[in-house]
Amino acid sequence: MKKVISSALVILVGWVLTSPTFGQGQGISLNKIIAKVDNYYVLRSDLEEAYQSYVGQNQTPPQKCQILESLVINKMMLAKAEIDSVVVDDKIVDLELDQRMQYMVQQFGSEKNIVEAYGKSLEMLKSELRTQVKDQKIVQKMQQKITTDVKVTPREVRKFFDAIPRDSLPYMPAEVEVGQIVRFAKPTKEQKDALRQRLLDIRKRVENGEDFGKLAKENSEDVGSAERNGDLGFAKRGMMVAPFEGAALKLKPNEMSDVVESEFGLHLIQLIETRGAEYHARHILLRPDYNRLDLTGPTKTLDSLRNLIQIDSLKFDKAAHDFSEDKATADAGGLIRDPQTNSSRLPMDQTMEYALFQMLDTMQVGSISKPLPYRTEDGKSAVRLLYFKNKTAPHTAEYSKDFEKLQTVVLQNKKNRAIDDWFKKSVSDVYITLDPEFQNCRIFGTTQNSAANTGGNE
């Protein structure tokens, strides 16, 4: 039974960390510290909000001790991340924070309405939310580190399903199929010229003896490679976008390119070496300030497409294929897929992208939204149309119909066990205490007075 609950707790913890509650409506009594993990702590309000998230979704909540266990795990990951020097780049946090604030503005109508609703300044709200976002990103990075080698087979999924009593088969949540047509805001010539000049200045600095890698780390907006001094590793031909690859393959080892423009921005490329059909390069990427781009053009384009679709002069999937600038969904007729299962059936719950969940909650099946401001995962400003294609009612699980979802559950259960094992092995590295009120809770099978709750140092 705990395996099923554990899967739910991972979702729950994600909700706790991502929900922009900011302590709204909490009294002083709710802010009592009920658990400490080194310098990190769990408040009673954290526990109550997590519990109420189940109630709000008409789900039976787990026992509060089990919820507390999941919250302690997250704080444990934060503490261990600090010990192991696992960090998240501030650029990633700032990007996510901007997206969350934009979603809230859409939800409340204006920044002024947000301030009035929460009774706090916008700066204070952003500060509180930034802490939540940063913690969430660090926990996600730790989870990925711990579970990177976990895999499941179809045989394991079949075994899991067959072991469930027929009268205890899980109730699958409502699922939706959603399409999108995305158009990106375009930088002006002046913006691109400014970026081009910055890269030319950096190029000159390298030619004058400065280290390319150091400058990449300081300036590149490709966060992933910037941490590695701009290094992209070896790539086979065809892996990179054409403008980048074409420029890289014309270079000799240690030679730098001129400024190269691609769909991702403007690049300065340095070839390190070639090896057969592979090449090893690094780059510095600069992108325009997406907050300052004009969305008028993309909005007009999508308005026209929406009108054509509504009068049945153009099918949505055809429009998505021909006009959407989001390549990941355009070839599938605009359908958004679950990144974990690659299924077009998305659970309509708190695991869904927040802005998408909020919008679908106001739409009818078969309807198309007006053009909506949208920020992509890599930070680009865009506008999109959403098409609410289909909705599947909640139902009792079936092996063939719900294989992808069952596979996800089995995978998550294995990941949870890996995290459990990691916790037991790592618990002595931190100091954990629980409030006496929760002394009967068994955190991973140990009670308040055991080593797991005292850091194992006594």
TrEMBL record:
Residues 173-273, 276-387 form the PpiC domain. Keywords: Isomerase, Rotamase, Signal. One of its GO terms (molecular function) is peptidyl-prolyl cis-trans isomerase activity. It comes from the Bacteria. The keyword Isomerase applies. PANTHER family: CHAPERONE SURA. This is Peptidylprolyl isomerase.
